[in-house]
Amino acid sequence: MEPDKYTDLLRIEDSNSDKFIKPLLIDLSSKSNGKKKFNLTCVLVESYYPSPNNDKPREPDSNPLSKVSLFGIIFLSICAALVFGLCTLWLAIFHYRRFKQLRLNKKIRVALAKSTQQMLDKSPVIIYDPDNKDHDYGDDNPMCAICLESFQKKEEIRKLSK
Question: Which SS3 state, helix, strand or coil, does residue 30 take?
Fold first, then answer.
């Protein structure tokens, strides 16, 4: 039988077709409302792949891993775990060294502040009086060497050592 332009051919050859295919055909024929003629036939072919270990056919989905594939998966997993471990170790060492350097810098700042305060505590405090003739200034209008401002009358100033 040669199909015409209104006929679709599909051949069904299976002992279990009564369970699944016939209800499908009934559903398809009820939806066509008789407007289009079709002949639907299906061929269900089960395929088996021979196993390398035995000659029994097996399901295509039941493909166990070979020893080489299993070894490759385990090897890659171990490599990934080693890389992750090394990266974690490097990150921990990096943060430890950074923390250690920050602690050292803080100790140095505290020691510098302490020594600066000790030096300032040793230098004498003088009350500036421009009318006093017994002063150590060589200038008539002395000024601060740090901020470059002139001293005010009755201002407390420190005399720094040379």
Answer: helix
Alpha-helix residue ranges (DSSP H) falling in the chain? 17-32, 67-122
Q: CB of 112 within 8 A of CB of 139?
A: no
CA R_g for the chain = 49
pLDDT digits (tens, 9 = 90+) for 56-105: 555 555 667 788 889 999 999 999 999 999 999 999 999 999 999 999 99
Q: Is the dihedral of CA 12, 18, 20, 23 positive or negative?
A: positive
Dihedral (CA of 109, 115, 118, 122) sign = negative
Domain ranges (residues) in the chain: 1-49, 73-122, 124-162
pTM, two decimal places: 0.39
Report how far residue 6's alpha carbon sits from residue 144's, in angstroms, rounded to the nearest whole number.
109
* In the block, residue with structure tokens 């009318």: 131
Quick one: CA dihedral 35, 36, 41, 46, positive or negative?
negative
In eight-state DSSP terms, residue 14 is -
Asked if residue 151 lies in contact with residue 143, where contact means CB atoms within 8 angstroms, the answer is yes
What pLDDT digit, counting tens, does each position of 111-155 carry?
A: 999 998 988 888 888 888 877 766 666 666 778 878 888 888 888
